[in-house]
């Protein structure tokens, strides 16, 4: 089993998320993280999917088979940036506040709110660094935590968002009939 | 109302006619009534077959599709009507049968409120449909119906569901028939890449012990002629999966027969011995491969498939060839030279001589007056004299005996539920096949268990005047295949398998059909002849021995090298 990060472009249509998640569940692919939202193109959503699997090509092919899925790309080995965000509420007394704020600053996180003995902080960073920061917070009075799924984007001039181009170059898919 | 305006229901009818649909199988009800109201006007073009259960309607549409090569269409109302279609939809999904199911849905205003007969059928069928639509705007119908048929029939064919709200069926709009298909994410492969074809050709050209495994895909892409030409040109022997029966003429010297759990010993041995296995249009189902990791251990595997996701799903694909089977075969015929397979064929034929396919089924003295395989022997003889027949089998022992003991010569003549193994398939599917192939005699071969699941469709067969349906009930008083497993693998504990039933011949009479009972082997041939000649649907109730088993058998999960032959 290995963790794989996939980028998926899909038609923004009713039921498409259900179909995608149902497929992964049915085929026993383990979802570690999933985030989905708008892409730069109207009507096309973009998903970053992290799956734990021994057979990522099956995941890619099965997703690709869905009618509303335009592009599936395994970016695990590709040069990419990956980010997660976490909001955390930490209970601190006045004495500990300074230490917390220092930690937040060192980690490149932000304090969003300070009220009545608790502080809400936000961190957006690579998954490993978010992990490390959250572990830190656990020793400092972590009360609540909300993490997003992962977002991934390839570096450089890769044209992720042109389904057609990707289809034609990629994955051994045959050409289609003129019809 | 302007001349161009139509109700949503009328648009559905016209869209179906544009797809060259001629027959629909269904049952009406509240939320699909507007469509039935419209069907009345279009009856000259669209024949509606009223089934007795929506499951029957779905299987009938499948049987129609399998016999005609066209898309089968079934209709049901919302709620229970729609859920009754789930089994045939799943069946079509597993066997890659092109099917469009149209269901009524509650009106948009009450969607999601648990309204009367509301069921989330698009949600329920997500795992077993290629795609589905919930339509609440009649303007979308021309495009949606066209897309549904396109998806159902292309690539690896399969079921598509269109769920239409009642208000969309009732709405009056001006249909726009010029809407293009909007399926940018759906691009099924067609033409195999030259590189992959060359790699396959190189492997085959170097092979000393090559083997072709022909599956359903050969039949679906109309590649039987291309397969015959390729096999004859190269001299490579051909084995055919359950769903591939008929893809290659079984009487041909290069034909070896069926592999897998109930395949012939020499076929499974050939697979284990071959050095190149060229799978064309089979998805390496576990009933074919046995324990997948031990399958064809010495072979380079060439896998020709229209569906990329089938490659390396269960068995490694050393050389995947993505694309249509017919195109691949035509291309390979040019690329692969005539091979010297004489000694390899001699080896396999020697194996065949050693493990006589029919050896377990030889009539011995002092056995029951009618053994099930006697029936198939007689059928085989009767069928051999004729060409105009097709057989639809149900699921169980009789299905395997039919596959083993009848001679399959033409594509589309063997119709069965393979992937899902749906008992109750045969009678309704035979009704659909009878409509698709009115000039052929359709034999439904069915166990007494499966027959009692959907035999209500005999009424449909009568009402539709389908004279070309003949039913052979292989009546062993048991859920036979399960009984066999209990005997072989579950210490003969016959839990829940003894089965009673009515007098099936009398039941046939009650439905207005000819019905006869056969209890002795010498009665079998005359009964089959009589049923065949009878100008109307008929049924033969074969009271066979209750303890007969299907051999050979590979125990589930074992290697196909390990067969029990007696
Ligand atoms: C709908 C459904 N239920 C249960 C099964 C499990 N099953 C497989 S074969 C079989 C026995 C079939 O008995 P019968 O129809 O009498 O045929 P036979 O095996 O005796 O030829 C059963 C119960 C199934 N395949 N389908």
Task: Describe the 3D structure.
The complex is a heterodimer of chains A (179) and B (566). Chain A is built from five helices and nine strands. With 179 residues, chain A is of the alpha+beta class. The N and C termini of chain A lie far apart (41 Å). Chain B folds into three domains: 6-173, Rossmann fold, CATH 3.40.50; 194-356, TPP-binding domain (Rossmann fold); 360-543, Thiamin diphosphate (ThDP)-binding fold, Pyr/PP domains (Rossmann fold, 3-Layer(aba) Sandwich). In chain B, α23 links the parallel β19 and β20. Chain B starts with 5 loop residues before the first strand and ends in a 23-residue tail after the last strand. Chain B has a six-stranded parallel β-sheet, with helices on both faces. Classes of the chains: A alpha+beta (179), B alpha/beta (566). The interface between A and B is medium-sized, with 30 and 30 residues. Bound molecules: thiamine diphosphate. Thiamine diphosphate is lined by residues 394-398, 421-424, 447-450, 474, 476, 478-482 of chain B.
How would you briefly describe this protein structure?
The complex is a heterodimer of chains A (179) and B (566). With 179 residues, chain A is of the alpha+beta class. Chain A folds into two domains: 2-78 and 158-169, Alpha-Beta Plaits (2-Layer Sandwich), CATH 3.30.70; 81-151, Alpha-Beta Plaits (2-Layer Sandwich), CATH 3.30.70.
First-last Cα distance of chain A: 41 Å
Task: Supply Rg of chain A.
Answer: 20 Å
For the residues shown, what is the average pLDDT of chain B?
96
CATH architecture of the largest domain in chain B: 3-Layer(aba) Sandwich
For the record, the CATH architecture of the largest domain in chain A stands as 2-Layer Sandwich
Q: What class would the helix/strand composition of chain B place it in?
A: alpha/beta
Which descriptors would you attach to this protein?
heterodimer; A: 179 residues; alpha+beta; Alpha-Beta Plaits; 2 domains; 5-stranded antiparallel β-sheet; 4-stranded antiparallel β-sheet; 9 strands; 40% strand; elongated; disordered C terminus; B: 566 residues; alpha/beta; Rossmann fold; 3 domains; 6-stranded parallel β-sheet; globular; binds thiamine diphosphate
């Amino acid at each position: 089993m290995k963790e794989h990060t996939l980028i998926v472009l899909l038609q923004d249509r009713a039921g498409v998320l259900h179909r995608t998640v149902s497929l992964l569940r049915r085929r026993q692919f383990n979802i570690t993280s999933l985030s989905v939202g708008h892409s730069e193109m109207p009507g096309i959503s973009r998903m970053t999917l992290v799956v734990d699997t021994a057979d990522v090509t099956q995941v890619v092919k099965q997703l690709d088979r869905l009618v509303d899925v335009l592009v599936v790309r395994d970016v695990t080995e590709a040069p990419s940036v990956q980010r997660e965000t976490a909001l955390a509420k930490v209970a601190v007394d006045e004495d500990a506040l300074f230490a917390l704020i220092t930690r937040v600053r060192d980690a490149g996180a932000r304090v969003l709110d300070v009220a009545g003995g608790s502080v809400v902080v936000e961190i957006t960073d690579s998954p490993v660094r978010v992990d490390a920061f959250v572990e830190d917070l656990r020793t400092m009075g972590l009360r609540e935590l909300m993490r997003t799924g992962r977002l991934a984007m390839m570096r450089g001039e890769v044209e992720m968002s042109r389904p057609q181009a990707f289809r034609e170059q990629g994955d051994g898919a045959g050409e289609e009939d003129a019809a | 109302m302007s001349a161009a305006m139509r109700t949503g229901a009328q648009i559905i009818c016209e869209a179906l006619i544009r797809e060259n649909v001629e027959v629909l199988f269904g049952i009406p009800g509240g939320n699909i009534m507007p469509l039935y109201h419209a069907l009345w006007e279009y009856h000259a073009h669209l024949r509606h077959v009223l089934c007795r259960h929506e499951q029957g309607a779905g299987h009938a549409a499948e049987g129609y599709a399998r016999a005609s090569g066209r898309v089968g269409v079934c209709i049901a109302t919302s709620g229970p009507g729609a859920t009754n279609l789930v089994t045939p939809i799943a069946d079509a999904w597993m066997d890659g049968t092109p099917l469009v199911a149209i269901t009524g849905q509650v009106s948009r205003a009450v969607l999601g409120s648990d309204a009367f007969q509301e069921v989330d059928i698009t949600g329920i069928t997500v795992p077993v449909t290629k795609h589905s639509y919930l339509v609440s705007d009649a303007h979308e119908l021309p495009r949606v119906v066209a897309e549904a048929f396109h998806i159902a029939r292309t690539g690896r064919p399969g079921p598509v569901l269109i769920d239409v709200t009642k208000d969309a069926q009732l709405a009056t709009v001006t249909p726009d028939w010029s809407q293009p298909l909007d399926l940018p994410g759906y691009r099924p492969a067609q033409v195999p890449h030259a590189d992959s074809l060359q790699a396959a050709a190189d492997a085959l050209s170097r092979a000393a012990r090559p083997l072709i495994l022909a599956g359903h895909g050969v039949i679906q892409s109309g590649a039987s002629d291309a397969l015959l030409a390729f096999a004859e040109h190269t001299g490579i022997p051909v084995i055919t999966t359950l769903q591939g029966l008929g893809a290659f003429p079984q009487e041909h010297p290069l034909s070896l027969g069926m592999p897998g759990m109930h395949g012939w010993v020499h076929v499974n041995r050939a697979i284990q011995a071959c050095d190149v296995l060229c799978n064309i249009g089979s998805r390496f189902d576990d009933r074919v491969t046995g324990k997948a990791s031990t399958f064809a251990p010495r072979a380079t595997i060439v896998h020709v498939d229209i569906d990329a996701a089938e490659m390396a799903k269960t068995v490694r694909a050393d050389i995947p060839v993505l694309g249509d089977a017919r195109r691949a075969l035509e291309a390979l015929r040019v690329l692969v030279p005539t091979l010297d397979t004489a000694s390899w064929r001699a080896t396999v034929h020697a194996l065949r001589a050693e493990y006589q396919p029919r050896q377990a089924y030889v009539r011995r003295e002092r056995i029951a007056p009618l053994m099930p395989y006697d029936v198939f022997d007689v059928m085989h003889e009767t069928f051999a004299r004729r060409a105009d027949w097709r057989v639809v089998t149900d699921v169980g022992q009789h299905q395997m005996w039919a596959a083993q003991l009848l001679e399959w010569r033409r594509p589309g003549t063997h119709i069965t539920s393979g992937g899902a193994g749906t008992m109750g398939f045969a009678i309704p599917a035979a009704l659909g096949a009878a409509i698709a192939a009115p000039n052929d005699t359709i034999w439904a071969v069915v166990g007494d268990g499966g027959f009692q699941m959907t035999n209500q469709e005999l009424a449909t067969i009568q009402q539709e005047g389908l004279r070309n349906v003949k039913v052979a009930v292989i009546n062993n008083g048991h859920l036979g295949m399960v009984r066999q497993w209990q005997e072989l693998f579950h210490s003969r504990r016959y839990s829940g398998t003894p089965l009673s039933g009515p007098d099936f011949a009398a039941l046939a009479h009650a439905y207005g059909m000819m019905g006869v009972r056969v209890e002795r082997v010498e009665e079998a041939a005359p009964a089959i002849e009589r049923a065949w000649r009878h100008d109307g649907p008929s049924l033969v109730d074969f009271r066979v021995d209750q303890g007969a088993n299907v051999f050979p058998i590979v125990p589930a999960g074992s290697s196909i090298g390990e067969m029990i032959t007696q």
